[in-house]
């Protein structure tokens, strides 16, 4: 479970996130929508305890990011968009294993998880190759596996299908659906409204640091009288109910 409670984040005179609140239930895939610079990544960085809220609080599985950051970090897996942050001189397996070792996974369990994720993400052909020569899509698969290797209860995914081809993106969406069946709590940030429509029943939309909508996709369609999610997104961002 994730509960964001009246969270704001200021950097000097600039307010990146202002009084944002929403709740993600256990076993739910919840969409976080917004343009680049809207405050999505800042919000997710606060969830991951990388940034501290200026005001408000966030609870992950009942633990506060401000009072219990270590407990929060034990329970989450986080994938940020942009640079995947892999070690180019290490193989894909070594990159994933290094991250898993930070969570104290025993060697046998660690290799079992790597092999399982390698099969699910179709990485078997390059799992033991150095990542320096990998394509963007191959690196993204390794970053996803690194995020999930310790089998976290709460998964934060910021634009996770960036760089993936159609087949790989479909495989990843099936993996997300499988994790939901296992009861994991998943926050899914994406610009792809098709992905949101397939994976999420409820969403929050942030624009210029403030909440513009939180609720079900069905209620969003009803409120704006528009079926297409891209058109709804633009109507919310522009503050218009076309």
UniProtKB/TrEMBL annotation:
Entry keyword Transmembrane: no
Keyword tags: ATP-binding, Nucleotide-binding, Transport
GO molecular function: ATP binding; ATP hydrolysis activity
InterPro entries assigned: AAA+_ATPase (IPR003593), ABC_transporter-like_ATP-bd (IPR003439), ABC_transporter_ATP-binding (IPR050763), P-loop_NTPase (IPR027417)
Flavoprotein keyword on record: no
Domain annotation ABC transporter: ranges: 2-233
Entry-linked Gene3D superfamilies: P-loop containing nucleotide triphosphate hydrolases
SMART domains per UniProt: AAA
PANTHER family hit by this protein: ABC TRANSPORTER ATP-BINDING PROTEIN (PTHR42711), ABC TRANSPORTER ATP-BINDING PROTEIN NATA (PTHR42711:SF5)
Family the UniProt entry places it in: Belongs to the ABC transporter superfamily.
The protein's name in its UniProt record: Sodium transport system ATP-binding protein
Species annotation: Brevibacillus centrosporus
């Amino acid at each position: 479970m994730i509960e964001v409670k009246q969270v704001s984040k200021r950097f000097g005179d600039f307010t990146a996130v202002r009084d944002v609140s929403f709740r993600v239930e256990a076993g739910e895939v919840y969409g976080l929508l917004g343009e680049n610079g809207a405050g999505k990544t800042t919000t997710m960085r606060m969830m991951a305890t990388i940034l501290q809220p200026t005001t408000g609080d966030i609870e992950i599985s009942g633990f506060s990011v401000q009072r219990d950051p270590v407990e929060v970090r034990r329970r989450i897996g986080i994938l940020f968009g942009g640079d995947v942050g892999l070690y180019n001189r290490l193989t894909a397996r070594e990159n994933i294993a290094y991250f898993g070792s930070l969570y104290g996974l025993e060697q046998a369990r660690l290799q079992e998880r790597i092999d399982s994720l390698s099969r699910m993400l179709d990485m078997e052909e390059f799992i033991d190759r150095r990542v320096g020569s990998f394509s963007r899509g191959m690196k993204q698969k390794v970053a996803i596996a690194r995020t999930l290797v310790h089998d976290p209860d709460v998964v934060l995914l910021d634009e996770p299908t960036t760089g993936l081809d159609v087949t790989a993106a479909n495989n990843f969406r099936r993996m997300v659906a499988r994790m939901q069946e296992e009861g994991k709590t998943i926050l899914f940030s994406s610009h792809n409204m098709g992905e949101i429509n397939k994976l999420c029943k409820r969403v929050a939309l942030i624009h210029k640091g403030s909440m513009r909508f939180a609720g079900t996709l069905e209620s969003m369609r009803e409120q704006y009288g528009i079926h297409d999610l891209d058109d709804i997104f633009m109507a919310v961002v522009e503050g218009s109910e076309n």
